[in-house]
């Protein structure tokens, strides 16, 4: 059933004419705070300050049922080709699915097995080169740079490793040379991430770093690692110290739990901490299959649809009050807007409704002294 043909769509459209009034003096009661909250895993989501009531909440879950959201999520995680336009699997979830009992082998389990082999290979690589490198330059663009950098910044306070990473994505020689000034090239490992091996920004940045190594009398093949898909232009052991793999069914914006993120995060944060991160991601994947309100991913998605498509709110401000999450908004911009910022559906038909909101933000309390003034008073 198409989105705008669902009975729940009409319910929600009618409810949006007079949404819950949060300005009323008694609007936010203790009872409301308790009713409109949900717990899943180790998280608690309080959404009592959203403009909805019981009728809207029920209609949103009705919409999810009518659109088969949970069934689609289960099919995606099992390895079915839900991306019908490109005719390929979407299996970033399999990159962290090593922690539960194994089902009979399907595409997802096979993908999880391949990912686990790469992690074991990375552990062997670390042991082999223990103590050789003090610095790491991670070269990528988009998700292969934003994701790893965001996670490192968020978790670096808990790191026990001594290798210091730098993340290079922008096509800007000044950024390259500013990083090179901060490292001892002899003690620097370089990780280059590209699925195709032909990404322009990544190729140019790699070339500049290669030239710097040669100028210092060093052999790039002894210090540069490639992280790519099998058979790509970068799948070349003669040019690289080691080649690690992730696969075409791992979208770049979701690749942080694949080897695209695992290499730099495993070495800089330590494997124990990185595996805890993988376990958390895997637990959230399982939560996304639940049929009740502990399914926080589904609940957040439904709230987003309510605000974007029915309340007609075009923007989403993300303001984490933790300086370690300063890169979180940049990462969410890509995950949300590159994923959902489309004008056509899977059948290439033009959408008759809005897709993604415009995502912006900054860490608090900085944001309170910049765009909050406009939000509150503009």
Low-confidence stretches: none
Tally of extended strands? Answer: 9
Strand count, sense and barrel status of the largest sheet are: 5 strands, parallel
Major β-sheet strand ordering: 4-3-5-6-7
Overall residue-averaged pLDDT value = 95
* Percent helix: 40-55%
Rounded to an integer in angstroms, the radius of gyration calculated over CA atoms is 23 Å
The topology string of helices and strands comes to HHEEHHHEHEHEHEEHHHEHEH
Question: How many H/I helices?
Answer: 13
Question: Which class do the helix and strand fractions yield?
Answer: alpha/beta
Distance between the termini: 41 Å
Q: Looking at the structure, what is the overall shape?
A: globular
Beta-strand residue fraction: 5-15%
Topology at a glance:
Blueprint: H1 7-15, H2 30-35, E1 37-40, E2 43-46, H3 54-66, H4 69-78, H5 107-128, E3 135-139, H6 143-155, E4 164-168, H7 173-180, E5 188-193, H8 200-215, E6 224-228, E7 242-245, H9 259-269, H10 271-287, H11 296-310, E8 315-318, H12 328-340, E9 358-361, H13 371-377
Explain this structure:
The chain contains 13 helices and nine strands. By secondary structure, the chain is α/β, with parallel strands linked by helices. The strands form three sheets. It has a five-stranded parallel beta sheet, with helices on both faces. It has a two-stranded antiparallel sheet with strand order 1-2. Strand 8 (315-318), helix 12 (328-340) and strand 9 form a beta-alpha-beta unit. Helix 9 (259-269) packs across helix 10 (271-287). The longest helix is centred in the N-terminal third of the chain and has 22 residues, at 107-128. 31% of the residues are buried.
